[in-house]
Write a structure and sequence with these properties.
With about 230 residues, this protein is of the alpha/beta class. Helices cover about 25% and strands about 25% of the residues. The chain has one domain: 4-Layer Sandwich (Purple Acid Phosphatase, chain A, domain 2), CATH 3.60.21. The protein is globular, with a radius of gyration of 16 Å.
């Protein structure tokens, strides 16, 4: 199966998605303001307008996403989400015309692939789905074994998680407890974003890690989608 991986568009849809069976989006989909409540209606309108037209125009069979820290609507405004953007496989079955679903601490299946997704990540300026490292453990513990794909916004510590902003000291922003969980359950592929500094693919101990962020540290669209096959 041909899978296209993207993340961290931040409302920028001016890029090409290669023809593929499945598009995976690892969060930070929407444009956002710092205030969640002024962002929710703006994000609802954007999703129901520009994003809907864009996703239905892509050469893909289906898409699965998780939210990111800029995607306020999924944490504080789920009732404002467009009906065509289901939240899980049950909603997908109720809305058969849907081309995308967004999963949150949820296991879904697509053409034989077992995919689990969660949007949580370490604290960063009090954005959406921020959780302290100690609180993250319960989310990671809920990730099941036997996965083909683990879809995250948060990077695991030490793997494509180093920042490289020209104005700030480089640091690792991944989760150490997430890395331990991944090493235990051993999914075939781990896809994430959040860190704009290290877009790319690495393989470690038989696990493929993909940082699919499309924007760089200055929020410029400088990267391309990453293709993987499973």
């Amino acid at each position: 199966m041909k899978i296209c991986c993207i993340s961290d568009m931040h409302g920028n849809l001016k890029f090409d998605v290669p023809e593929c069976d499945l598009l995976l989006i690892a969060g930070d989909i929407c444009p956002a303001e710092y205030d969640p409540y002024t962002s929710i209606e703006m994000q609802r309108s954007w999703l129901d307008g520009k994003f809907k037209r864009w996703i239905y125009d892509q050469p893909i069979e289906y898409a699965i996403s998780v939210a990111g820290n800029h995607d306020w609507i999924w944490e504080f405004g789920k009732d404002r989400l467009p009906m065509w953007f289901p939240l899980n496989i049950v909603d997908r079955e109720m809305h058969g015309e849907a081309k995308i679903e967004c999963i949150e601490d949820y296991l879904t299946f697509y053409k034989g692939l077992k995919i689990y997704g969660t949007p949580v990540q370490q604290p960063f300026n009090s954005w959406a789905f921020n959780r302290e490292e100690g609180s993250l453990v319960k989310y990671w513990d809920a990730i099941p074994e036997g996965l083909d794909i683990l879809l995250l916004h948060c990077p695991p510590y030490g793997i494509l998680d180093s920042t490289h902003h020209p104005k700030y000291t480089s640091e690792h922003i991944g989760s150490k407890s997430l890395k331990k969980r991944i090493e235990k359950i051993r999914p075939k592929c781990v896809i994430y974003g959040h860190n704009h500094g290290e877009h790319g693919v690495v393989e470690e101990d038989g696990i493929k890690y993909v940082n699919a962020s499309l924007v760089d540290e200055e929020y410029k669209m400088t990267r391309k989608p990453i293709m993987v096959e499973l």
